[in-house]
Amino acid sequence: MSAGQIAALIAAGAFVLLVLFAAIALVKLGRTLDEATIAIRKAHENTDPLLHGANDTITHVNTQLERVDGITANAQAVSGNVSALSSVFTATLGGPLVKTAALSYGITKAVRARRKGKDGEGRHSRRRRKGGRG
Asked: Which of 27, 73, 110, 120 has the highest Cβ tally under 10 A?
């Protein structure tokens, strides 16, 4: 055997090893792709019930929000009615009640001042000047 033939045999053996390593890598890559395909299929199968559950939940939340909107509309109407009622009360009874309370306060203060003996010497009485008219 000549040196060229030995080199060709070594090159052929190296090529066979290279093909063998490439085949092993391709087989492992094929298994990985199969596992990925199975995982994607399972994820797809499990997302359908999850999405249906999410859709039901969103529908329920929307129903509750509509109820809350109704409640807030009713509360707004009640607060408007209370405001109108307080305005009516203030207009019809508020003024006379305030006047009555002020009159009552004034009379009470005057009676107390009179009982203490300040009726002639109170703040609002006229003082006589020295040497002046009376």
From this structure: 110
Question: pTM for this one?
Answer: 0.40
Structure tokens at 96: 């006379």
For residue 73, give both structure tokens.
């509309």
pLDDT (tens digit per residue) in 73-130: 999 999 999 999 888 877 787 777 788 888 999 999 999 988 887 545 555 555 555 5
Residues contacting 113, CB < 8 A, separation 6+: 119, 122
100 backbone dihedrals φ, ψ, rounded to 5°: -65, -45
CB 77 within 8 A of CB 71: no
Any idea what the Cα angle at residue 66 is, between residues 63 and 72, rounded to 5°?
145
Q: How many CB atoms lie within 10 A of CB 111?
A: 10
